[in-house]
Design a protein that fits this description.
alpha/beta; four-stranded parallel β-sheet; four-stranded mixed β-sheet; 7 helices
Amino acid sequence: IAAATPEAVVPAQPLADAGTVRLVLTGDVALNWRGTDPNLKVFPWSRNPLRFLAPYFRAADLAVVNVEGVWLERNPTYAVKHLNLVAPAASAQVFAPAGVHLGSTANNHALDGKDVGVLEHLERLHRTGLKTMGSGRTDEEARRPFVWRGKGSCVALVPATWKMNLPIRGKAAVAFYPPERQAELLALVKATRATCGYVITYIHWGVEKAHYPGKDIQALAHSLVDAGSDLVVGHHPHVLQGV
């Protein structure tokens, strides 16, 4: 793929039905690769790692990624070095040019830069035109579903994470649902279903490198479906777990 052009990855194909809504939902996108100058102001398209997937994103009515890590002016030097997913601030520029519309910031790395980092990270993403869900200044803002309307359809995405590296403190919030708060997530899905015809729960959970979801995940997934989710999309394990 590294040698391919975007056009070679997937040819542009017209939708069979003009009323069809096409969604592209991905897992974790971490951009803490080595060699990116922290002083870079404009991220070049020739180095954009998403350029090979741009045809998929651009063909979608809604393309969604989980933004894993924080893009900040200064490295917060996370305590555990191999878990440090901070990326230079210019990394926020890779999404919109590739055709990504929405980024979820509800994941275990959301607070790696603490509350100040949450807000700076969101500001940088929004400045590029990327819409976000999953974190914000208040709990209500962080948990608010993202709603897409078009082609006579309503699609709502409910952001969630049941994992968090650091405690939530200060002037920022994340859509964090540990086991004792999962009833709140189910209630939110149910309420969202009452206002939108199609509901997706987009949730950060599981165990890294585990190829099969545990029983606790399967149980919550079924509960989310029972509450009104048409689709439950999980991320975090860094491997494909099937459907």
